[in-house]
Design a protein that fits this description.
Largest sheet: 3 strands, antiparallel
Strand content: 25-35%
Mean pLDDT: 86
Number of helices: 1
Distance between the termini: 12 Å
Order of helices and strands: EEEH
Number of strands: 3
Low-confidence stretches: none
Radius of gyration: 12 Å
Length: 52
Amino acid sequence: MSVRQLKENKITKDGRSWVFIQYSKGLDGKRHQYQSPAYYTKKEETLNTKVL
């Protein structure tokens, strides 16, 4: 799982730009990507990630 900042064209209208991305393998053996909703700050994102 990694914490990343979105590119300028993907930032939300209210300025949220931090997401975490997680890869997992499905039943078919392929990798699937999950991307969290965007957060305002990296600190806020990591606190919410720990709750999951």
